[in-house]
Amino acid sequence: MYLLGYDIGTSSVKAAIIDSESGTTVASAQFPDTEAPIIARQTGWAEQEPEMWWEELKHATQRLAAQVGGRLTEVRAIGISYQMHGLVCVNKEGHALRPAIIWCDGRAVPYGNAAFEAIGRERCLKHLLGSPGNFTAAKLAWVKDHEPELFAQIHKIMLPGDYIAMRLSGGVKQTTLSGLSEGMFWDFQLGEVSRDVMHYFGFSDSIIPDIVPTFSVQSSVCEAVAAELGLKAGTPISYRAGDQPNNALSLNVMKPGEVAATAGTSGVVYGVLGEVNYDRLSRVNTFAHVNHQQTTGATRLGVLLCINGTGIQNAWMRRTLFGSLQGGHALPSYPEMNALAESAPIGCEGLTILPFGNGAERMLLNQDPGASIHGINFNVHTQAHLVRAAHEGIAFSFAYGMDIMKEMGMDIRTIKAAHANMFLCPVFRTTLATVTNTIIELYDTDGAVGAAYGAGIGAGIYRDSDEAFTNLKQKATVQPDIPHRQAYLDAYARWKKEKVKSEK
Q1: Do residues 61 and 230 touch, judged by C-beta distance below 8 A?
Q2: Which of 172, 239, 484, 492 could cross-link 79 (Cys pair, CB 3.0–4.6 Å)?
């Protein structure tokens, strides 16, 4: 019995098929092979065409079909993971009215900040568990203010995963409590769509799609799409979640005190809380986790620390540092860059990089200081120093955010992550483990695989996540480098000083 998972990312759409009985991944694919484009019509803006995600999904599905000999009709349930916080506006026919305003777009910060003050800081923190900030509700407010004629045509607003589910089902428009909370539309005290947010921004309740449970048979694949993709008509769509709650699911991080991390285009540390809590400065985000139960009182909240400039900084460094120096030769691979970074000393002999070059950072109170390089010495520093400083800078930004989470009372001793992306980088993962004094456990999983397991839970094929992830494979463990910890801490202290200077 097959389960199919899609991961609608910023860079590509990933897809995976697992065998529900053995837990084996029988096929995996992504499209495109290179990073998908982001539209930036102005500084600080970031958009993508929803139709592009759909085309990428079709190509990725074709690649899966080739790997399983065309047996996609054996898929029994579909799950969807997606890039969080994006805004998709559709009309009654389900057509996107404009490009999606995605997670790293910073234009809506003033709208969220104004709402935070007008609704009241304490009320927002108590009811929304954070500031409206730069999330989906604030993005919609920007559309209402700057594109009023388009806003008047909106039938429903959707998150990226809601849009893909709609396309698969032939037009069924739905969302989840978890999704609404990530958009700052959910009131955790009243257990309903936030009256404060809807009233303040002047949104009609009618634009919110029907709310369905995260794990449930939500809709099914329509005949036209089934014929196009090679699936069986009526296949249940039984799970959807934002990429970070889904990443936690894929690592079976479901209980209070457990922590998951990821470091793709952006970086995230995601911890599960069993009671309502929040950061009083709203520097980290608190949303409903995939297993949060508002009606039964089984509180499961995800505290999410996001660093926008993670893998995207590494990719920028690769293109920019080496692109003009290779004389037409191929750029170095990421493993080659990792090896180069390891050849430089801890702390990079005074070189420090702040990785804040991908939009406003929530943990910096929604400031956008930009990325910057500090302490460079033309007689000392080399390519190796620059690459290592980039990797250390990303790790330090993770550590800084985790310090905030610890202030909230979270006891972080172990981090679970997929054996992928920046966690394949020895400098990054050793720096993070050493500075935070945590053990990092790396597993053989990814977002698409997690979405497939989520589909199995939602369709009732698995009793719960413990049964689903019985065969989760640990690949590696990263221990803190205790003998050299002081050198890492000294470099981190220097990084924090530069961060403070950049915010002035």
Answers
A1: yes
A2: 239
